[in-house]
Design goal:
The complex is a heterodimer of chains A (507) and B (324). Chain A contains 17 helices and 20 strands. With 507 residues, chain A is α/β, with parallel strands linked by helices. In chain A, strand 1 and strand 2 form a beta hairpin. In chain A, helix 14 packs parallel to helix 15. Chain A is globular and about 70 Å long. Chain B has one domain: ABC transporter involved in vitamin B12 uptake, BtuC (Orthogonal Bundle), CATH 1.10.3470. Chain B is built from 14 helices and two strands. Chain B has a two-stranded antiparallel sheet. In chain B, strand 1 and strand 2 form a beta hairpin. The chains are: A alpha/beta (507), B mainly alpha (324).
């Protein structure tokens, strides 16, 4: 039997009172793609950071190609041929691709000759792996998918034979994810070892040879991918059976509660939306699909009152919002429009505030007489939400910043749905959220729909759009296409609409 | 015509002398801020350098010893700053302000203890100050019109620190943009996590940035008390460190624009006494105070107005390890 490329024995790490990993044993065989799957907070990222030397384990040993390594620091990990692509990209803004790749390996005090040599070598690495990247492009100008390729290239340039990817597809559009998985496949074919950390079962099933499942810091199971199924892995991750998805849908009412007609949005950055028209009906979920950056964020912001209308109008009940009659977020809220923003950390929460305070953001008028806030009301609301959404840890005075992504999102969704709003805007409601929380949020969305709420679901995840929506529209370069009835919609048609090809003009 | 040319040259000559400490301090600020350390302590480092130089020259009579003492003192202060905000990840502005306060107090206390002249050092004899350096050809070119006065009045005849200040700009530019150190320094100021992840120590980079800043502030201080002035006077930095910081922001953390900003402030400063008593039609004489306040007023307007979007290094003020 071959020597494992990476062998971990009894790795434990504690942060304060949190035991991030406990006694993890792991063997990664060379030339394979090894998946590590688990929910948010299961300890996957900590494990990756330990292998790359960013954290020192409290106990345990690491062997690379059969050689024990101690006191690993990133510089040692690199010299052992370990490369890491972080969840948050480590690309220096304002630097070119070449400068980012060379950083730390400049070869000499004078930059010029080093960069010239690096340019030649980089072209070779690119050719070898079939990657095409302009070395002089500034990283800020590149799409997310390309930036990630730069990260991978950075590791390959450093001679990485073992590549660790930490949640690499969280920010990628579907076609970018496909490209990444194809790249990993090619890398395996050329003999590299890949450790893929994810919570998306689809990625494991598509590209991995073997998979380890983590739960609460433990490695609970290990399977050959060919001998397992997505259902089995999901059960192992969560620790119990999941409620079956795909609930039956209630009959659709045809009462229009929100109408957008001829909406146009322009700002300093250019035209964001052009002539967008659609209606949102009570008791339906309208799915808005599209590659991010095509106007979805702007549309949500207009509907939430955060961004002015340049042309056309939005009507909610008898209120008509247009260029001359703007609405504020507070007014939209009073019209019954609740909003789960795309960026929960910047727009959905005030991170240093505790759960109690975050639970009443924008709704303080209900928390006491006049300008006063009654602490007991805050406490009660927070406790109700914690119970209702199973927010962990169940401590109302815990700052939102210390919660995991999934639990942060629960706080936002709990707040925005607490008063059963007639209209709910959902921006990427399950992005970067663990699978159990996704199930919970999805069941709440369907529950609201069945009670007559009108929901606009913006998601980059086509599976989510298809699983929940009654009708589907898409945005591409600020232009709307559709709607299609989900029942009769075809994924490839929606994909073409997202790409701006006129695949589905059907109403 | 020749008179106007000479007048203009003398104005620029004065501007250069006044801009010298600004240029040195601004370059000091540039190196440290590009590494991610806010250097509000320029003022205190400058003042400490000025005191150390004057005290050392008074005690030894050697201007070189004075320069060395100034560089050592300012660098030590810079290292204290680094110890607080790099090693202990302290708040950079607060530790910087603390250094300014300590410098303002300690220079006077030490001055009193050493010389018993109310915190001043004894006035220095002209021989104890930096001598003016006459560049080659100043004599031979003197007769040549236009070029002769330009060389003789403006370029030649300055003290060593003035030339050091001017030389520091291309040197810093090269260091920041054309060297390995500069690439890493800028990366540490934009995204320190990327530097750590590349296996390079942000701590060492930032200390080096502060080290260079200390040396430059020391030279500026020595110039203030033993080149431009003849002895140390309490609070003699008089906000020049802060003005250098303003020039740094005005010049968007880029060496050549920062030099331009420093020279602009220098020209305004040099013009102030010349404008004294100038009659403006209908308004009467211009109060000299108004002219003196111009550089500061201009800074406020420039920074608040169309330069409001000055692009600071992304990780300025932030220790590595925590994003957002």
């Amino acid at each position: 039997m071959a020597v494992p490329a990476l062998r971990l024995r009894n790795i434990s790490k504690r942060f304060g009172t949190v035991q991030a990993t406990r006694g993890v044993d792991l063997d990664v065989m060379p030339g394979t793609v090894h998946g590590i799957i688990g929910e948010n907070g299961a300890g996957k990222s900590t494990l990756a950071s330990i292998v790359f030397g960013l954290h020192t384990p409290d106990s345990g040993t690491i062997e690379v190609d059969g050689t024990p390594v101690d006191n690993l620091r990133p510089v040692d990990a690199i010299s052992h041929g370990i490369g890491m692509v972080h969840q948050h990209f480590m690309l220096v803004p304002g630097f070119s691709v070449l400068e980012n790749i060379v950083l730390g390996l400049e070869a000499g005090f004078r930059l010029g000759p080093g960069l010239a040599r690096a340019r030649v070598r980089l072209a070779g690495v690119c050719r070898e792996h079939g990657l095409d990247i302009d070395p002089d492009a500034t990283v800020d100008d590149l799409p997310v998918g390309v930036r990630q390729r730069v990260e991978i290239l950075k590791a390959l340039y450093r001679g990485a034979r073992i590549l660790i990817l930490d949640e690499p597809t969280g920010a990628l559009a579907p076609h970018e994810t496909e490209q990444l998985l194809a790249l990993l496949d090619r890398m395996r074919a050329s003999g590299a070892t890949v450790v893929l950390i994810t919570h998306k079962l689809h990625e494991i099933m598509t590209v991995c040879d073997r998979v380890s499942v983590m739960r609460s810091g433990h490695l609970v199971a290990e399977r050959d991918v060919k001998d397992t199924s997505a259902d089995e892995l999901a059960t192992l991750m969560v620790g119990h059976d999941l409620p079956a998805g795909g609930e039956e849908k209630a009959a659709v009412e045809v009462r229009t509660v929100l109408e957008v007609s001829g909406l146009g949005v322009r700002d300093a950055g250019g035209v964001r939306l052009t002539d967008v028209s659609f209606t949102l009906r009570a008791g339906e979920i309208l799915g808005l699909a599209g590659v991010s950056g095509n106007g979805q964020s702007e549309l949500l912001e207009v509907l939430a009152g955060m961004r002015p209308v340049s042309a056309g109008s939005v009507s909610v009940g008898s209120r008509r919002i247009d260029h001359a009659h703007p609405a504020s977020p507070a007014e939209m809220r009073s019209l019954g429009v609740s909003h789960v923003p795309e960026d929960r950390q910047r727009q959905g929460l005030v991170l240093p505030f505790d759960i109690r305070e975050n639970a009443v953001l924008g709704r303080l008028e209900r928390c006491g007489p006049g300008t006063l806030v009654r602490p007991a009301v805050l406490q009660a609301r927070a406790e109700a939400m914690i119970g209702d959404f199973d927010i962990r840890p169940p401590v109302p005075d815990r700052p939102a910043a210390v919660l995991s992504g999934g639990n942060q999102q629960k706080v936002v969704v709990a707040r925005e749905t607490a008063e059963s709003p007639p209209i709910l805007l959902l921006g990427q409601p399950t992005r970067g959220v663990d699978i159990a929380t996704i199930g919970l949020i999805h069941s709440r969305i369907i529950e609201l729909r069945n009670r007559g709420c009108a929901l606009l679901l913006v998601s980059a995840d086509l599976d989510e759009i298809f699983a929940l929506s009654d009708r589907i529209v898409t945005l591409c370069s600020g232009r709307l296409a559709g709607p299609l009835e989900t029942r009769s919609a075809d994924r490839s048609v929606v994909g073409m609409m997202m790409a701006g090809l006129d695949g589905g003009a059907a109403a | 015509m020749a008179e106007t040319w000479i007048d203009l040259l003398r104005l620029l000559d004065g501007a250069l002398r006044l801009a010298t400490p600004l240029i040195l301090c601004a370059m000091a600020g540039l190196v440290s801020e590009r590494s991610g350390v806010i250097n509000i302590a320029l003022e205190g480092k400058l003042l400490t350098g000025a005191f150390a130089a004057a005290a050392a020259v008074t005690l030894t009579g050697s201007v070189a010893v004075g320069l060395a003492a100034a560089v050592c003192a300012a660098t030590m202060l810079s290292m204290v700053h680094g110890f607080a905000c790099i090693t202990h990840r302290g708040e950079q502005i607060i530790s910087g302000v603390a250094i300014n306060i300590v410098a303002a107090g300690l220079t006077v206390v030490a001055g009193n203890a050493l010389f018993r002249q109310g915190g001043h050092t004894p006035p220095l004899a002209p021989d104890d100050r930096f001598p003016a350096l006459t560049l080659p050809f100043a004599e031979t070119l003197a007769a040549v019109p236009v070029l002769g006065p330009f060389w003789g009045e403006l370029v030649s005849g300055h003290t060593l620190p003035v030339y050091l200040a001017l030389a520091s700009v291309p040197v810093i530019w090269w260091l920041v943009y054309r060297s390995r150190f500069g690439l890493r320094l800028r990366a540490a100021g934009e995204l320190p996590e990327a530097v750590e992840s590349a296996g390079v120590s942000v701590t060492v980079l930032r200390y080096r940035g502060l080290l260079i800043a200390g040396v430059l502030c020391g030279i500026a201080g020595a110039y203030l008390s033993t080149g431009h002035g003849g002895g140390f006077v309490r609070e003699m930095s008089a906000g020049k460190g802060f003005l250098a910081l303003a020039a740094l922001i005005f010049g968007r953390w880029k060496p050549w624009p920062v030099l331009f900003a420093c020279l602009l402030f220098g020209v305004l400063d040099a013009a102030a006494p010349r404008l004294h008593g100038l009659e403006v039609p209908l308004l009467g004489p211009v109060p000299v105070a108004l002219v003196s306040v111009l550089p500061y007023g201009l800074t406020v307007i420039l920074l608040a107005g169309f330069f409001g979007r000055a692009e600071a290094p992304g990780a300025l003020g932030r220790p590595p390890g925590r994003t957002g």
